[in-house]
Structure formats: C-alpha cells, structure tokens
Amino acid sequence: xxxxxxxxxxxxxxxxxxxxxxxxxxxxxxxxxxxxxxxxxxxxxxxxxxxxxxxxxxxxxxxxxxxxxxxxxxxxxxxxxxxxxxxxxxxxxxxxxxxxxxxxxxxxxxxxxxxxxxxxxxxxxxxxxxxxxxxxxxxxxxxxxxxxxxxxxxxxxxxxxxxxxxxxxxxxxxx
Length: 175
Hints:
It is a single chain. This protein is mainly alpha-helical. The protein has helices spanning about 1-25, 30-35, 35-50, 90-110, 135-160, and strands at about 65-70, 80-85, 120, 130. It has one domain (about 1-60, about 90-160): Four Helix Bundle (Hemerythrin (Met), subunit A) (Up-down Bundle). Strands 1-2 form a two-stranded antiparallel ribbon. Strands 3-4 form a two-stranded antiparallel ribbon. A hairpin with an 8-residue loop joins strand 3 and strand 4 (about 130).
C-alpha cells in the first residue's frame, strides 16, 4: 500500500513541479527580465518549493540568497517577504527548481510509516507552521501548482504563449 501511495503522490507532485519548470523555461528571456511580477513569482516558487521540502525547516539552506524585508521595503511587484539579493537569471531559477525537484522526489520516495509521523514544525509561535509530513507535501504541491497557474496566466495574457499540461511526472520534463 505504501509503495503505491508514494508512486501516486510522486506522479502528481512531480507533474506539478514539471509544469513549473516548463512555464519558467518557456518564458522568453526578455520577458523574464522585464516583467518583474513573473520574475518574483518564479523566484518565490523556487525558494518555497525547497523550503517546504526541508525537514526540519531549520535545516533550510537556499541555493539562491535572499533577504527578508518588511512590506514597506519590498519592491513593488514582489510577493512575500523573501526578496532576492540580486537578479537571478532564468537559468539559475530553473536549475534551482530542478535541484528541488530531486529533493522532493527523494522526500516522497523515502516515506515510511515512521517518516509519515514526522512533522514540519517551524517554531513555537501560534502562527508557525506545524504540519504532519503528508500535509506539508500536499501543501507544497498546492503552492507549486498555484504559482504555476499564475505564471501560465501571465504568459498567456501578455504573450499568447501556451505551455503544456502534465498528467503525470515525466510527461513534459525528463529529469
């Protein structure tokens, strides 16, 4: 049962990540550089895909550096409070997404009955995340797909670019 569960979970989570990699990769370089909202969503997605797959989250060590900023100090089109320390290229963000894809794959493939009892616990404050392992994985999948949809919408509305849907992991991204 657990083997089948892990395969199904990875089929869908991996497909979500593949779609994110595909939409970022499909973005023309000049649009990626000029359209700051697209850039910030792609960066945010890369950071949090990695963060939510880090157990425990205190071990999080991002490949792309950022600074946490108060709302009044954030760039206009940014999302969230993690602001990149410099402008990263599309290729750097795609590479980070590919790295995190492997990390997520290993997380799912490594699930055992015992691992499923572990928790993603940020801290002890009332608003800190404290999720069972399966819930943080599903949360990460939903977060990834949410931002993938935003990026797809921006490409479709601004450039009339359509990216592929992935039914299962590996349909569009062979890594």
